[in-house]
Amino acid sequence: MSYMKMNEWTPIAKDYDPLKAGSIDGTDEEPHDRAVLRAILARYVPNKGVIGDPHLTLYVARLSQQTTEEKLKEVFSRYGDIKRIRLVRDFITGFSKGYAFIEYKQENAIMKAHRDANKLVIDQREIFVDFELERNLKGWVPRRLGGGFGGKKESGQLRFGGRDRPFRKPINLPIFPHPFNSEGRGERRPRSRSKDRSHDWREQRRDYGRDRGIRRQDKERPYTKDDKEHNSEHTKRERSRERTRNDKDRNRKDSKREKSRERNYKKHK
């Protein structure tokens, strides 16, 4: 990250970049998990069937299953006139999925709701409020494709740059004059929190496209007897490895059980 880019740093992403979203300070140069790579490869197109003005629409999440459209209207109408409320429900069961979209009539109303309604408690649940991102943020990739913002530590897929988890400011190394530089000018170098990784994700991306081409060719090629024998041998090897792993796990559990019995015996002796 250059000095100019450091001056342009913001805690909230202006465009969505899956690689940056996967980094706590937005400086990663390689994806640190497969979900980030999946988001980079994704080609997401926003739902054209969604109606309403995206610039006047709020995203409300972490709702209780008991929260209804009427309750949302009661709470959010205090910030201004509401044009439309859509509580997202499961298509099969009809149960709430825990998030909704609220469209206001005026810009000052949505700005006030965005400022004051975040972390309100509705039906014993602390809610999360943000602007709609699907149609507003360039390059947006949803959570189900490895993108999104936020997340929990337990899931192992934290995404930064949003309101819930903004970027942390990168740590810059101070300027030191180079001993062999007669002009005494140093170079400002950022220190990224990301570590060097042995694999190159760009190679992985090229391999992904190459593999897709190979798979497409394999589909077009007729299935032969040699292919059948090869697949059979591969299946046997995989089953053998699986049996070996299961045997090791079983032996490990038996050993732990035996040690536990010995400890209990000595304790009650």
UniProtKB/TrEMBL annotation:
Region Disordered: start-end pairs: 146-269
UniProt KW Ribonucleoprotein keyword: yes
GO biological process, one term: mRNA splicing, via spliceosome
Lineage: Eukaryota, Metazoa, Chordata, Craniata, Vertebrata
Encoding gene, per UniProt annotation: snrnp35
GO molecular function annotation: mRNA binding; snRNA binding
Domain RRM: 56-134
Keywords: Nucleus, Ribonucleoprotein, RNA-binding
Protein name: U11/U12 small nuclear ribonucleoprotein 35 kDa protein
